[in-house]
Amino acid sequence: MNIRNVADQLCDSEAGVGSPSRPVHRLIEYGRLPLFVALTKPRVMMLAVFTALVGLINAPVRLEPFVAFVAVLAIAAGAGSAGVLNMWYDADIDAVMKRTAMRPIPRGKVSRSEALVFGIVLGVAAVAGLALATALLAGAILFYVVVYTAWLKRSTRQNIVIGGAAGALPPVIGWAAATGDIGLQPLVLFLIIFLWTPPHFWALALNRCDEYARAGVPMLPVVAGRAATTRQILVYSAFLAIASVLPWAFGFAGAIYGAIAAIGGAFFLGLAFQLSRSGEADRRAAHRLFVFSISYLFVLFAAVSIDRSANASPSSRLPHDARIDVGSSVAMPITTNVRAREV
Question: Which residue pairs from 240-245 have beta carbons closer than 8 angstroms and sit at least 24 positions apart in sequence?
Fold first, then answer.
């Protein structure tokens, strides 16, 4: 046995689930930073930040760069906190699922107490950084961790449907951080993500059915079977295709977005139809829909922002003064431009 193996064993024993005596001290060990980054579910966090940024950009308020940076950073911390606390609570089922068995906690690289401390610290920092959107951000974190992770995920086949509300909130939070209120446009963006979530996750679950069953998670494919799941995916995909063109129909975006939404929605629906017609042994149809759904949402939200920016003109905006509160005691004045039809 060489020195490196001995060192690895010592590190593993220190990071064991029941062993940490100084979790806060170990949080700051630089060599373990990638492990804590992994706990935040970076890819999920990026999607949350991106959709929140779309809400921020599309709000009828022009933020100062520093205020916008603080808002995005706080939203990222909030999304990361939800991911960390989700992994903290789900460590037991993560250990028995192939897809999640290599996460830091099941591997013994980070203890559950360390993850809990880290998640709480991120959550507090996120809420403190967004005074105007505090209620929404705190609500999203609590909903994801308490309602979805601790309750719905292990108790109902509709876990993804109801729990998806937390993942759909970032555009609303971004808009609220900029304006201090909630408008129709962020609610439409919320609806798009809400309807996108079930087909996305059920397509993944179809090819992971055995793992979810072994972990005791009542995902729809586990409790209702493949046929019922593919029918539900088709229904949600149809509603998603309709909802995706609403920003164009309501005038939030122009013809370029409308065309992208219509084509993307038709393709999404086509893949869902192919999945509903596929056989039990066909894993490719579900995988195609799952992979496409990720790109679809990114392209759709990028298009709504780009198209809106391209169609915005100085003559269509009316200036007024506003104040955006950052933190609990700092107020930063900004000049905003508002579309006349959005006043």
Answer: 240/192, 240/195, 240/196, 240/199, 240/265, 240/268, 240/269, 241/265, 241/266, 241/268, 241/269, 243/188, 243/191, 243/192, 243/195, 244/192, 244/300
